[in-house]
Design brief:
- The structure is a homodimer of 207-residue chains.
- Chain A has 207 residues and is mostly helical.
- Chain A has two domains: 54 residues, Arc Repressor Mutant, subunit A (Orthogonal Bundle), CATH 1.10.10; 137 residues, Tetracycline Repressor, domain 2 (Orthogonal Bundle).
- Chain A is 76% helix and 0% strand.
- Chain A contains ten helices and no strands.
- In chain A, helix 5 packs antiparallel against helix 10.
- The longest helix of chain A is centred in the first third of the chain and has 25 residues.
- Chain A is elongated.
- The termini of chain A are far apart.
- In chain A, 38% of the residues are buried.
- At the A-B interface, helix 1, helix 6, helix 7, helix 8 and helix 9 of A face helix 1, helix 6, helix 7, helix 8 and helix 9 of B.
- Chain B binds a DNA duplex (30 and 30 nucleotides) through helix 1 and helix 3.
Chain lengths: 207, 207
DNA sequence: CGTCATCCTGACCGTTTGGTCAATAATTTC
DNA sequence: GAAATTATTGACCAAACGGTCAGGATGACG
């Protein structure tokens, strides 16, 4: 896609610092709520210097989004069509929950974007994301036909996994406020719950 | 709480128009992303006139939030402790999904607020919301002890219901983009899926 | 060391934003 | 229908915002 310019070490360092700072600021305040001054300050650079590396605020944002979508879909791609259906899906749930634990900023960045109508990544959703989800749904359907997985709408099964796992990153303010937990503790609990929950829902009825 | 000022008919009409307009604008763009001009325009009023009825942009926002939280929790309060456990919870899931269908703006308003750390309603979450959830969790626990409901962490069960139902309002851009549905159709599908899904997960194992 | 490209910044600009205010218009009240 | 109250607005303001630019500092390299 993008031409690989010969990046100097300073460029590499500062581009990374800016993207990391922007990830924090954008995920906390959304695109409109974030300011270049906040990003520059968080990156330890001056505002004009930030704009020396990225053409605009929007350029930083889209660079973040497109760079992250890949990582975000990896757990879905890692489902093994030759594995045991329930275990494979439970594994996917756990990997997705793990991402909520390790990358809450990334999760909230997407959440912010999609809640507001996904104006800047709708094409990526309609394209590669839809394709991957459709393919996975087909795999699930096959497993259901073989009687190795409870019969449920496969697309909505994927949605439920996204919803229940990302919830712990996107709405952690609410969750920790109700559970009165600190740090990661609520995700430890979620791990146990989601394993039980999905196992019950997914195990096919004995014939 | 608030003193009931003798509201004139004009006050009533314009306050409602402003809150309705603000609901649309805030849910689409978040607090920071929304502007008073957008709200005023959507309400059919001039900006200074909007500020004649509300002291500030923030006052409009908090008026919306606190006025809506009640409505938002009603479905949870409607769970009947004397009903059949699985049916009661399935009913709650359906009512909550119905709210995603009828009040997507309200759902996205809360989503925006909580994703960004719930800075303006954290106390209401830690107070009345937590209390209601704790009480409901206790009810669920009792049902589990009686063997009338599968044993699962009751708090996280509530979270899963919030996550899976609100997902269809908050992330409808993504869902409809993947399903290629129009309007409400994705929620019709969700209804069937969630009924099957939760029935499987909640029915206790036969003794 | 010299020179050339890269890196960085203070000062600045036009626009947008939340909010004010004095003056005017519309309604209600007596 | 006059007086008093409520409603509405155009003009305005200060601050914040995204972004520009000329020029200086710093680094890479022969």
């Amino acid at each position: 896609m993008t031409i690989q310019q010969p990046q100097t070490r300073i460029q590499k360092k500062n581009r990374e610092a800016i993207l990391d700072a922007a990830l924090g600021v954008f995920s906390d305040h959304g695109f409109r709520g974030a300011t270049l001054d906040q990003i520059a300050s968080a990156a330890g650079l001056s505002k004009p210097n930030v704009l020396y590396y990225f053409a605009s605020k929007e350029a930083i944002y889209t660079a973040l989004l497109s760079g992250l979508l890949e990582t975000w879909l990896d757990p879905l791609r890692a489902i093994d069509p030759d594995g045991e259906p329930v275990d494979e899906i439970l594994g996917y749930v756990m990997r997705k929950l793990q991402m909520s634990r390790e990358y809450p900023r990334e999760s909230r960045l997407f959440a912010n974007e999609i809640v507001q109508g996904a104006p800047r990544i709708l094409d990526q959703i309609e394209g590669p994301l839809k394709e991957l989800v459709d393919r996975t749904a087909g795999l699930f359907l096959g497993w259901m036909d073989d009687g190795r997985l409870a019969r449920l709408d496969p697309h909505h099964l994927v949605f439920s996994i996204w919803a229940t796992t990302q919830h712990y990153a996107d709405f952690s303010a609410q969750v920790t406020s109700i559970l009165q937990t600190e740090g990661d503790a609520h995700i430890d609990q979620a791990e146990t719950f989601l394993r039980d929950f999905y196992r019950r829902a997914l195990l096919p009825d004995s014939p």
